[in-house]
URB1 N-terminal domain-containing protein (Prunus yedoensis var. nudiflora), 1070 residues
Amino acid sequence: MEVASSASEDQAMVVENYDGEVERVEMPKPTLKVTHEAKLKELLHKINSVEIKLCSDGTKEFIKLLKGDSGGELLHYYVKNSAKCLELPGAWKLRRGKSGMFCILKLISVILSHPDGIYKPNDVERMTISRALDRFARSLIEEQLQDVYKELNSKEAKRQKAALLLLGSIVRRGSGLASEVAKNFDFKLQGFSKMGEYKKKQNERRMKLSLRKAFVGFAVSFLEVGTPGLLRSVIRQKEMYSVVLRGLGNDDDETVLYVLSTLRNRILVEESSVSPSLRSVLFGSVTLEQLVNICGRENGGASAELAYSVLVMVCTDPCNGLMSDLKRRLRGNSKRLVDLMKKLKATEIGYHRDLLLAIVNGRPPIAAAYMVEFPYNLEDCASPTWFSVVTLAANVVSSVGSGHPFGFHDFQSHDPALLDNVDVQSIMKCLYPRSFSRSAINKGLLHSDFLVKHGTLRVLLEALKLLDSFLGVLNQNGKLYVSESFKQDFQNEVRTLLPDPQVLLTLLSSLSNHSKNQQLSLKRTAELEKFPEHSCSSVKKLKTDIENKDADIIIGGLNFDPDVALPEISERIVGMSTDDGLDNEKDATNVMAEIWGLDLHSTSLTTLKDAEIYFHCRLLDALKIYLRIMPTVLEGSFEFFMNLLSSPSASQTDLQRSILSLLVEFVGWSPSSRIPIRTPPLMYKHLLAFMNLLVFSQISDIKDQAYRLAQAAMLSTGAFDRNQHEIASWFLFLPGFDREKSSVQVLGLDVLQSLCHVVNSFLCDAISTTGNNLFKYWEIVKRYTRPLETNKEVKPHFSPLSICVLQKCLRLIDSGSGSFTMHEKSMVSTYVCSTLKYLLQTQVDAVFVSSLICSVLAERLGDCSVIDDSGENICEWRPLNDLLIFSKSISDQKTCGIFSIRNKAMPAGEMIYNQDVDADEAASAAFSFFLKKAPFHVLFPAIMSIHGPSSEPSKIQDLLLAKLSECATDCHPISYLRLVLFWLYQIRSSHRIEQLVNFQQLSEICLVLVDSLLSQLLVLNTDSGSSKNSWALLSSQDIQEVAETIFSHPAMITSFSFPLGCSEDCQRLT
């Protein structure tokens, strides 16, 4: 090369751009210093020398300068002054067939791979340089490839390495040159693939590793720059890539990261267009094993993490050829996958465990194949690895149930052999490893080592969850026809696989034993003795009768030991010494937490007692799923479970929650009507336990479950004819009742708690009496209402509980035994009258209830005027007095009496505060508290009955709307709709007597509330996502009741008959 002559050439070049178009680009003039020019002349002179030492020294120095800080400037200067790099082909020709050829190849590879010589958009100078180097590289492919073959066949590692480095540098220049190399290079060259093999001979190891690295670089360079078409073509060079991937386990981290990151970003993506079959060829069994070894390295760092990431992609994405996907007609290679899964050290290495769980996640067929060949022993509970193995088995089953594991692609409508379906059989095989049989589970659950019990129960619980999920999908999938015969066959099949539930009941015997030996507290005993229908002796007799009748079902096979010891600590934890008991206990809880996958920092498991409670909670969860899968398997055990609820341990929140959840499942609920379907006949005897939890518990889900069970208990009397709205009404006015939180605990008043207990016990006693004497009370209802039944289609829509409660309330107030204080009598009286008034107001036709109440009260009170405000028993009798006046007003259709009840002045003796300077502030604070806490069903009638203020009707309306939005959705909207319509009817009927302005304002408020309630009901009926759960959705019976209310309520007829001077009202109601 003549650098000076090249520099003096015309600086304009005609070049071909990357799109094949010809363009003229002005070459920038060189700006390097004279010293760089001189150095370049010296180096090029050495390189073209016939002396091997000069040539070698020149190439080494040139390479060093190119890799230095000013290497890019040097490269640009050289290419600008020698566009065809003529000195390099000259040196190549000079060394052809002679020693030192590898020096030239190495120098050229450095020049071609230099980052400042690679194409970069929008950089004109670099664009010119890169195109010149591309032309030079292309000439090498076209003219010098045979010399490269000679170097590769030389058997000298340094020459072979130089040739591979050169080829790799050409490929990396872009997809065009990469395609040229792929088209012209002979990949079948003898001995070519052996260059990438790892040699174990110590004296050759270093050089061979260096040669392998160059081989890997050349092979992977195609993947780095290739287009989809090139990738599909070059990936067919199976032998070359097989050598690369099979040796990864012996490569350094840099090589591993380079290869795997390129595969992840260029091949294992949709854009690569490489078919699943070709991807599957890349990842054969040996390659997969290499990746498994890499991700299992101790302190593997980034390479281990990347290997795990690639394995997850390869093994879980059907597009990569191993995992099957019948929907896309991808068969995969299940055998290769299962073989890989069996080789994983999933009990020792975290990445291996996570990979195994990722493979089986939501894939019953592959999990079933693995469980059949489960590579660990679960029969020997004394093995030091048993805990980790049983935890792995449980995690596998749990992972199978994650995601969407049930495709049902083979299910046929009305298929008589549904149980033999491949999906069903896969589920059955996934439940637990083949060696973990039903008898092995029984032994594990009854083992003396409580950690073995925990491990066994974890596997059983995960298996139950999987079955439950499977049946849930079957029942919810409307496209599938699931016959009753299949369900029965499925239950029979499952029954042979699962342990007998009596084994689980045996494990709960310690809790039951506490309950059977426990005596009720003195305070609660005293309260119950006041109500003979719900006394301890009555309950005890009832339980004795039931247990004698169904002893073989309820407690058959149970061993009750009065002295319940703490669980035995595993010998594997304790060892030979007992001096460090606290450490042993901590180790035991750590093992237990690992078995269940718990984070000790976020749980309260600190002692063995906590572990025992946790175990019992999971036992109850397992029994709950037993009931869901096989509803009849625990028939007759309700009393046993109720005993658990009254045990001292049940005061623990988690245990309480689990027991209640089991009881809810035991009762069962119809999803369409929210009616219990398996209510025990005498469940109402246990109502007090549910009501106390409902009123006093601080946990919202416990309160919710207690509420549902209390409803079921009341329905078990047979008195309500599935009238859930009336049942809900009996809870609304219980002292401290709140579906979200306990008002009693918030206030923190012991006196109020005592009064709540009295009211709860009174109601339970009345319900028990009604249930025990149902026909008697129905006859009383008929006797009182028969004169009103002029139309055969009009029937009473209330239960006989109203009569029983009212009669008991009168007897209680009349009682002079001293068993009840004035406060207790007043509280019961207030509760009874508030509830009955609400029932009156929420009837479509209130005449029946009002007449019945009047008849019962009149027998005792006579004319209401005989009770004046000066009597000694004013507190307990006033509510009854008001109720009688209210009922008579409805019966006689005298609405003026309703509006006048609240307007009487309170006597001075009943004033809470004396007249002083703080009276106004105290009254204001009390009223504010009332407005904040009072629910809609309390506040709305209060406002209506005193006419309401005419000065601020909009604020009253906003307050009532806000209260409506706060109310629970369960049952209340329909009752609230009737409540508002009741008062609208009273207003419409009274408009001729009172001032028209006030009634117009109240009527307008009522119409706005009706509109809001109807909107709520419409949302509940059409939008399942509007409520927290399906329990709040309207049933078909609810819809029927709404329609009956709208078309039959007197308020609707009155609105059209007496428009109150406002035609808009009629329009809105319509």
